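question for whoever is on the cluster today: can someone run the full assembly for these? two chains, 1302 residues total. i dont have access anymore since they changed the login thing
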Amino acid sequence: MIRKYRIGTPIETDSVVEKIKLSSGMVPGWEFDEKKKTLSMRMDADAAVYGLGVQVRGINKRGWHYVSFCADEPHHEEGKTSLYGANNFFVYVPSDKGDQRRFGMYVDTPGRVEFDIGFYNKDMFQVIFDEADAYTYLIEEEDDPDNNGASGILSIVRQFRRIIGRSYIAPRWAFGFGQSRWSYMNEDEVREVADAYDRTGIPLDSIYLDIDYMERYKDFTVSEENFPDFPAFVSEMKNRGLHLVPIIDAGVKIEKGYDVYEEGIAGDHFVKDGKGSPFTAAVWPGRVHFPDFLKEDTRRWFGEKYRRLMDAGIDGFWNDMNEPAIFYSEEHLAEVFEKLDTYKDKNLDIHSFFELQGLIGGLCNREEDYRSFYHEYKGERLRHDRVHNLYGFNMTRAAGEAFERIAPDSRPLLFSRASYIGMHRYAGIWTGDNMSWWSHLLLSIQQLPGLNMCGFLFAGSDIGGFGGDVTEELMIRWVSFGIFTPLFRNHSAMGTRRQELFRFNDTETMRRLVELRYALIPYLYSEYVRAAEQDEMLFRPLSFEYENDPRAAGVEDELFVGRSIMIAPVYTQNARGRYVYLPEEMKLVRFRSFSDYDEEWLSAGDHFLKAEPGEVPVFIRKGCELRLAEPVMRTSELPEYDELDKYVFRG
Amino acid sequence: MIRKYRIGTPIETDSVVEKIKLSSGMVPGWEFDEKKKTLSMRMDADAAVYGLGVQVRGINKRGWHYVSFCADEPHHEEGKTSLYGANNFFVYVPSDKGDQRRFGMYVDTPGRVEFDIGFYNKDMFQVIFDEADAYTYLIEEEDDPDNNGASGILSIVRQFRRIIGRSYIAPRWAFGFGQSRWSYMNEDEVREVADAYDRTGIPLDSIYLDIDYMERYKDFTVSEENFPDFPAFVSEMKNRGLHLVPIIDAGVKIEKGYDVYEEGIAGDHFVKDGKGSPFTAAVWPGRVHFPDFLKEDTRRWFGEKYRRLMDAGIDGFWNDMNEPAIFYSEEHLAEVFEKLDTYKDKNLDIHSFFELQGLIGGLCNREEDYRSFYHEYKGERLRHDRVHNLYGFNMTRAAGEAFERIAPDSRPLLFSRASYIGMHRYAGIWTGDNMSWWSHLLLSIQQLPGLNMCGFLFAGSDIGGFGGDVTEELMIRWVSFGIFTPLFRNHSAMGTRRQELFRFNDTETMRRLVELRYALIPYLYSEYVRAAEQDEMLFRPLSFEYENDPRAAGVEDELFVGRSIMIAPVYTQNARGRYVYLPEEMKLVRFRSFSDYDEEWLSAGDHFLKAEPGEVPVFIRKGCELRLAEPVMRTSELPEYDELDKYVFRG
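^ ran it for u. tokens below:
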């Protein structure tokens, strides 16, 4: 049962594809304070809140505040409030003590909105708008006998997913292992990576090209110096069974003669500043203009550009910097330099010193810059901040819509950093620039249910962590979790310790783990496709499956993956195991490789589970089964799930 | 059994007070590579390493690298390598499988030294020197029948503690609750805090004065505007049973007519730049000189200044910014401004932009600044970086030595931010500028054993977190842990959410928790004094007490506190309990207040322990007892431990 309500004059976002009749009045159960632009509701003392896509903190979002305003935020500390996505769907689950009922709510507004879920006052839920213009969708449980046995929370999620349209389905090869680095600088570096993986026998399906493959960071160019014959190189890799996946950035370099820039100017495709000229900011290429992806013909124009790389044989892309990230705006930088002059003349006191630090530190992703340019959207001129959260969505939609024209019969890989609900129909996401921290391994586990709820099924974190230096133990544990996520990609930043799996001492363990991944792919991919087609969640917390078990509600580090298995990853340093809670009896299979494991039935309740680095505990649900393939070096060599009969684990 | 070895030409640090004969040759069990200035040792696959004082990551330090170079580092993320202290003592504990033996090692060198404990290579321990000049002390187990039943690790620690001298003993009132803020700006704000605590019935013993009590951040001054009659105000507070504890910074403001500055110049007390003039840097007061605390007569001069505040009735201090923190050096700032001019003229490309950001971001605590000034130390002129880690130690020693002269019969409170072993004889420490993060609550638990090993028994973290915004639940959990730490102080930064306990909704729970602290003080203080006098640890991980229990070695979140009790704090959001491992049967007392609790015997093994916010589980060891006092509003009203007989809990 879904009802739709209106607050103010909402901007249409295209996130909901089903037509839903507008109900009159305010969304029931919430109070709206017009002056404070705030919806509020008292929470039951034991209520939990789930959802919100890619965000900080735990699976249960209660106890913090979250700001939906897509942010280029590489410091995913628990004190932050925004990450890359803005995904405003949540489910509220009260305890059974009070008289509140479970419900889902989607706050469809493309501007900034804050969800204070017991931060300011531990028992209050507040939705605080920048501009109180939104559609809110209230989703209540359906008393649907044909519910496939799914519980209330899952039925709420399924109803929501139904109205936002079917999730993007990635190709099976995208479930293969991907190796990335900012950046492999030329053909030889890419070849060396491919060779080393083949030499160590670690399966691999893709190598990612970060920004340096381009000619001076110009979208849809390839450096001729470093990749002198790109189509031939793509084809060489393809012949080895390897896909190259280039990055595409949101900003278009301002450069006379660069065709994308020239076409953008000629076609009036760029966002405008207050005076109507193309807005200028700086990102990787230096000064850029941003395409106005909110315009349909700009999407069509930009989308067509992917064809160049697809013509060269490319069949996968990642869209980046599309919050959009802004290193600085030209106008503000000039102001800062003027201000700097005044510091120089006077004796810098401590107050001015902090001001100076703030000026320079505050150049990037500055709120005022986001208020200084304009879109044309559905016939209106709108200031960017009002539609900020649609930007990455529509960049990626541009690509997704183009793929339907360019390659209607194939399934290209596409994922994005920024997101808004609706984008899930076109692409997956990765969780952005995390760090090589144990706490970020846990975060990457905890982010999956919220993403799945919002339709993002193809998702994953940078395995091993993007920033900072990984250790071998952290990498082993991260890979041991990552083998279950659709996107399974090792990525790291310039200047950090090299972390390709073949660079560690214990490549034997790395190989066994990636082999186990390949053995799992038939199961994972079929469950993934099914989840997309049936509007279900691939990753589900225990509380979604055992709603009446209060202990299940407190479990923040175990996930069901598909219908048959549950995982309990180890995410602490020097651990030799971890605690696990089983809501019911399950079969434990402790894998050291696809063919080396021990099995044991564990009773419902609490267990300390031994799991040395390199050991992967998998729990098989009673009455379910997990079939593994024999591992291969490329996904293309894998059979389908229902062809498997050799390695069958029964719960 | 302690042996002392020499590498190069060590600088004496005064950290070891017992005379130990020098053994010839290199420390056995380690290889020394002269070219790499590195000591290295292969670690047993299951070996653990403990110690290193205030550092990031877990109790077992294996799996990361740590740099001893006292740092003003408010971002205590797991990717950092240095915090405020440099405490180079550790214990190595191999598994019983190999042929290695347990030992302790103290690397006594006042310059930068890195401990790579399985970071670069998971099985190698490397001690990497900046300058390979050090004494190393190798401490092996004593086969001492008179060991008081203590285990091997503890006997190693005790031997080490014996040679570094008895730990500072804080007054009992310092175990009372302390309320701090950067800053209470004037008398009225302090009074309001005192009034609000008294009104809500939450016990309190001290209120801290952060930098704004001073006249423009000048050490040993008090703002006449904000504290017009300071001695009268101190006395007013003392009459209410409250101690005021002012902060003292390392840098002395450069200001004509300011007597401390003038005396420092006249007495030649400041560190010198390369040309022999006083080195100028900026900290809170703007431009400052740093006293050369490494000189005995400078220590005597600076120490005498505390007398002014003591004459006004002050009996407690915290020494801050003594790494020393440097916001910028005058010389380098001039260079940066010159460089900025060159950016302005050219069109700033992305490369120059990052350079600009780095220039400004890198002004603070810059390594090159630490290489640009000089000390006079034991008759030598030494560049600062070579003795960096002695600076905070000797600032605090200046105060401690002065107190022995000024108040020989009393026990003033003194603690410091920077530390080096040796300072533990003069003062305690607080763990510096943490954040209001759940992960920092865990960190504050994990830092205690390492601190205790190095002699720092009077220690604690900023309860609720210094930076960032705390939530009520995090504060309740942090207080629930903090009631066991000697320093029990709520402190937070300017600009963050106010976090005095009376500001939350549930002041009733806050009151019960602080009351429980006061009920515990007789136990805690007597165990603390005993630990100091007997060279023991107040906080001990399970692995120190149950060396032959491999499960105990993996427990990173349970601590013995004194001889009778073990604690297992809850440190995750929305938790209703946690797992606990008991190496042997223990009595659980789950306190809701000193007089409201339930008791239960728990068997050895794993348990899921229910603990709602506001519930404090305490485990009493078999055959031990815990006696509680009836809570009072001030520590002065508390009886001694052996006078207690009403609330007795027996294990």
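summary bc i know u wont read the tokens: The mean pLDDT of chain B is 96. The first strand of chain B starts at residue 2 and ends at 7.
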